[in-house]
Every structure is written in structure tokens, then in C-alpha cells.
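hey can u check if this looks right to u? its 285 residues, i copy pasted from the old doc so theres a chance i mangled smth
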Amino acid sequence: MAEYADGYWWSKDGLRLHYRDYPGPSDRPAVLCIPGLIRNARDFERLAPHLAKDRRVIVLELRGRGESAYAKDPMTYVPLTYLQDIEALLIDQQLEKIIAIGTSLGGLLTMLLAATDHGRLAGAVLNDIGPAIEADGIARIRTYVGKAQNWPTWLHAARALAETNAAAFPDYRLDDWLVMAKRRARLTPGGRIVPDYDMKIAEPFRLPGGESGVDLWPALDALKDVPTLLIRGERSDVLSCATFEKMQRRLAKATAITLPRIGHAPTLDEPDSVAAIDQLIARVG
């Protein structure tokens, strides 16, 4: 029996979007997991069943990723539309209170959700992201997002990931890269392995200012009275030490951990990450 059920909801512009629904006790706030820019529900394939022992867990896939439909207009691949899609899911599933766990872009959306729908958040996890994004990280991400690639085998895909991500995960072995490859890519009917997202998500991201465009510090401040966990990879080129420390000073209810020898972004499979997330959820109740 599957540990999750596949669920679907509809966006305002008519896209059929997908989520994984891990059943759990319904008398507590559900956990909503939001993946990063080119990620999908498989990013949480280890963490989600662990958390579902205590409560319901929903892992969504943003438009253009995984089993969610690709947008007809690539200019809808922007945070405002993603936020509207998430709100539609929350209404569809009647989720009055949630704990949001957001990786990278998912963390930005968690901050925006706090600013626009503050009463719904019972807790939050921001994984290697903050209101200020480092220029070096943005430049690196722009080198590969939306770049069409394909590989003949999972081993080739894993080795390609190792070549581009070795600095972020210097201790990874081949088995680790294979796990990452199977999370990020999919097998086509033609037998090739390709990234599991719409290449057109890069179009608005590549526009001047497309990576942000707004001051997100007020959105972070909306989490002041929300139990929050801040996670940073020690080798991150997206979230600087200075920004991470400033975030901690602004959020009185936040706890923070730095994961050694990891860059952008931690997988949340790390024992320290799991333990810290467990502690946050225990605080929320």
C-alpha cells in the first residue's frame, strides 16, 4: 500500500496541479512542504513519511514541475502566481492551520504566505533562503535553470549532477548523487532521462530583477510571532552568514541551525535537520 495518495487541485487559470498527500492525525496543523525552483514532491520523500507519523503532510508540486501541468504562459512562473496556486490548494483542502516547510523558492513563498495569509501559519521552516539572495548564487543558478539536458542512464545523470554540484555537497558519494538524480529527473517514454520541469520556468527568472523584484524583509517580519526554524548550509552561496544572522535578530521566536559541509540547498534528510524540524513541530503542537 502506498504511503501517500496522489491529489490534484485546479489553479485559477485552469491548470491541474499535483500534490502528495501523506495521511496522519487530523487534530493538529497539517504540514505543507513546498519544494525549490526546479524541484518536485520527491524532494520530501524521506522527510514526509517521517512527519506523517504525527499529522497529515501535503507535498505540493508547483506549476511546471513533476506531475503538475505546465503553464501556457511562461510569465506565470512567478512568485505571485505560485502564491495564488497555494492559496487555492489551502482553500480546496480546507486547511485552516499549517506548518509550512519551504526550500529555497519554497521558503520565499512561505514568507509571502506569512505576509498575505498570516493567520494560517502555525509554524514555518525556511531552508537556506532569506529576504536577501546572494548575487553569486543567482548567477550560478542562471547557468543551468532552463537548460535542456538528457542522459542515457541514471548513472550518467548522477555524474552530471556531481560535476555541477560537487562544491555544495563535497562528501557525496555516487549513491547520494543517484538519489539526487532520481529526485530531480524523470524517464521519458523514449528511454532518455531529463530534468523533471518545464524549461520555460527560466524565462521570467532571467529577466532583469526576475529573481526577486520586491523587498522581502517585511515578509520575513510577518513571521515574528510564528515559531520558525531557519536552516542554512555552511557552504551556501544563496544565503549569506550576514543575512542569516540578521534574520535571527529580527525573529524573536526563531531557532537556527547551520549544517556543516553542505551548500544550497540542504535536502532536509540530514539528521540535524530532521531533529530540528521535529523540535519545531513539537513547539507548535
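The first helix runs from residue 47 to 51.
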